[in-house]
Amino acid sequence: MDNDTLLTTTRSVRRKLDLGRRVEPELLAECLRIAQQAPMAGSLLESFRWLVVDDQETKTQLAQFIRSGGEKSQAAYGHLVPPRTLASGQHLLAVLERIPAYVMACLPGRPSGDNASSTAFYGSAYPAVWSLQLALRTRGLGSTIVGYHLAEFEAETAHILGIPPEITQVATLAIGYTTTSTFRPATRPPLEQITYHNRWGTTSSLFG
Ligand SMILES: Cc1cc2nc3c(=O)[nH]c(=O)nc-3n(C[C@H](O)[C@H](O)[C@H](O)COP(=O)(O)O)c2cc1C
């Protein structure tokens, strides 16, 4: 697969995860080693942590908090997302215990609230998360970010996983092999409409 195809067809996979196929820990480790090379605010490079969860009992406990949060979230905000995405999210909630592996990206503390610190904090996790999603894809695995438990159940999730209270769970990926290798670019707004040139609101001359 060429790089542009990888970057444009790596989707959030929920319905096409192979729930019956184990994800080898050594394969996850290989992908995490690649993701470690992602950019990160220098002050956080040493304190970033991954937590891999593939033990069935722990996944079952984790699933109950993701599901509780997810049902509330989908009831409140489901109308704001495309119907296909909502249906896909509902499917995910139904099979949470059977997801082969979860990987959580964690950082110490909380940003102080201003834009610079929030950007540095959360922005330090997501490049690595996306690199992990790309590395997984090139090996036949799919993933999706799940944040449902964070609104009300972050502390409960931390408790079952032994995460200290000062640690922030920034992102969780649900991971499995995919049942298909055919993924396509998604529909996005026309680039011409979302891209300004030199001044906010100007039509971009980049497109002729
Ligand atoms: C910060 C962030 C949080 C997300 N949270 C969830 C989530 O809680 N549940 C979920 O099913 N997908 C979640 N997603 C995935 C988005 O729904 C998905 O990226 C979007 O629908 C576009 O689909 P695509 O990734 O296939 O292009 C999240 C993505 C990001 C970047």
TrEMBL record:
Short name of any one Pfam family annotated for the protein: Nitroreductase
Residue stretches in coiled coil: none
Lineage: superkingdom: Bacteria
Gene3D superfamilies: NADH Oxidase (3.40.109.10)
InterPro entries: Nitroreductase, Nitroreductase-like
Stored SUPFAM superfamilies: FMN-dependent nitroreductase-like (SSF55469)
Protein name: Nitroreductase domain-containing protein
Organism lineage: Bacteria, Bacillati, Actinomycetota, Actinomycetes, Mycobacteriales
